[in-house]
User: What shape does this take?
Amino acid sequence: MLTYPAIDPVAIAIGPLKIHWYGLMYLLAFATAWALAVYRVRKPGSGWTEAQVSDLLFYCAMGIILGGRVGYVLFYNFPQFLQDPLWLFRVWEGGMAFHGGLLGVLIAVALFGHRYKKNFFAVGDFVAPFVPIGLMFGRIGNFIGGELWGRVADPASVPWAMVFPRGGELPRHPSQLYQAALEGFLLFVILWFYSSRPRPQRAVGAAFLFGYGIFRTIAEFFREPDAHIGFDMFGWLSRGQLLSIPMIIIGAVLLVHAYRSADPKGQQV
Assistant: This one.
């Protein structure tokens, strides 16, 4: 069994100014996504400019923050919202959801595409490879914050299990790191290389939906469900898994349709 590295949630403190690790992870996520996107657009014939990348990052950041908060309220704690509607705006109390953030980003992509006269699916294909690297930093932030811990594990079979300060006295899976590795790093590597060659329109975005849905569903088997929700179906499916299953189905359908709609060279007809 490993000892949980109790890290001060405040990364930098200068007088009254305090920068928390979770906020720093968000900053690293956006900075890394911007740098990778700029690397891509500098290639000849990309059809993008660096100014457009900066604008798209702003749109997506707003979509993640607003959508993530609204998604958490609607998907994970709607009864509390009904009791206290103003709780929606008290973001400092915590509570963000990936699936809500995804919906927010989709809206942001649509708004960006409308402004710059770019196809919605083309923008989605461009954005998709950069999302997992941001998710990786977010999950690392969850681990540092000692939140969203995993299920109880037997140290004899899981020697890396650890006791989280707020997770009780029993050792648990560090599921935040599992998610960082699967939904973050591994999915990023897959999408980065997959998108490095021309693909039919919708294929890269569809691969993200399918891949994330699969990896999130796997990781949820090691993650402790929210205490106020528990398991949603059959006594073993979590809310995160139920929200990820539609992503798998939609991603698979879009991926098949993308290739069936393409010409023999793989380009969109």
